[in-house]
Design a protein that fits this description.
Layout lengths: L3 H5 L4 H9 L3 H22 L3 H18 L10 H31 L7 H10 L4 H12 L4 H8 L3 H21 L13
Helix pairs in contact: 2-3, 3-4, 3-5, 4-5, 6-9, 7-9, 8-9
């Protein structure tokens, strides 16, 4: 009699996800064996803390287990679906860690006043929707290109490019209207 785990080694990834959707722990273990090394490498590239790397891989697989019933192989390949979920999770974790370290640095140096441009940008960003703010933050601070933004947000590429351009134009217009930037894009202050 053969071992079910050995038989699953020949199954395609989408069949394993379908097995997970039906509660197969053996399918989960096989998918973990296939993708954990790759997702760990992805996490290492984006995170610095070894504890964050390991916990993010575990969290990604918990997320995959929970989302397996939603997977549709007609819409996206299994590997792409897994990497999109992983990339989004790792970006969110990296962004949260960056925010918490920024807050800690601010706490450690309370005598430093924020640069005026920082306050101006925060005011300008406040006029944006949360989705627009997320796009700008990912593009400017996480250095995501349009395709990565589309993968992370789950939106079509054209929607992302239009939304990002419109958001940046709104910030630019706000900065001009408030006199914080002149029409040439230079800071208006002296």
């Amino acid at each position: 009699m053969s071992n079910p785990a050995d038989e699953l080694k020949t199954f395609p990834d989408d069949a394993l996800i379908e097995g997970m959707a039906h509660g197969s722990e053996v399918a989960f273990v096989e998918l973990y064996a296939r993708f954990a090394p790759y997702l760990g490498a992805l996490a290492r590239r984006m995170l610095q803390n070894p504890e964050d790397i390991q916990s993010s891989v575990e969290d990604i697989f918990v997320n995959l287990w929970q989302r397996a019933p939603q997977y549709d192989p007609r819409r996206v390949r299994a590997a792409t679906w897994i990497v999109i979920i992983a990339h989004r999770h790792i970006l969110n974790l990296a962004f949260k860690r960056k925010l918490s370290s920024t807050l800690l640095e601010t706490w450690d140096a309370p005598n430093q006043a924020p640069l005026p441009v920082d306050a101006d940008f925060k005011r300008a960003a406040a006029i944006l929707t949360p989705d627009e703010r997320e796009l700008i933050e990912l593009a400017l601070f996480q250095h995501c290109n349009y395709r990565e933004l589309a993968n992370v947000t789950g939106k079509p590429l054209r929607t992302v490019t239009t939304s990002l351009r419109t958001s940046l134009e709104r910030v630019y217009t706000y900065l001009q209207d408030t006199g914080l930037q002149d029409s040439d894009g230079r800071e208006a202050r002296t």
